[in-house]
Specification:
alpha+beta, single chain, 1 helix, signal
Length: about 90
């Protein structure tokens, strides 16, 4: 048997969770520019995080490709990998 305390807690937790979700979905509206940052790494040197200019940022609910200019690091020959990281909000990719 489940105690009465657990029966009451489940609906309360569900209510709190459902109230917090709309705030996440309302963060961006269709057509809003999604701010983004980028960082590169070549060999052992890393760049700092750079904000991406608005025309190179994705647009919320718009299905299109975004071309982001990437400067070649000093000494880049193509033989070794150049790693790129992106940050959207608090998420890093």
């Amino acid at each position: 048997m489940v105690s009465d305390g657990r029966r009451i807690m489940a609906p309360v937790l569900f209510l709190l969770l459902s109230l917090s979700l709309p705030s996440v979905s309302l963060a961006y509206r269709p057509g809003d520019i999604v701010p983004m940052s980028k960082m590169g790494q070549y060999h052992n040197s890393r760049t700092v995080w750079h904000d991406v200019v608005g025309k190179h940022c994705p647009i919320f609910t718009v299905n299109r490709e975004v071309l982001i200019p990437i400067a070649k690091p000093t000494g880049y020959t193509g033989a070794d990998p150049y790693k790129i990281s992106f940050q959207v909000g608090r998420e890093k990719f």
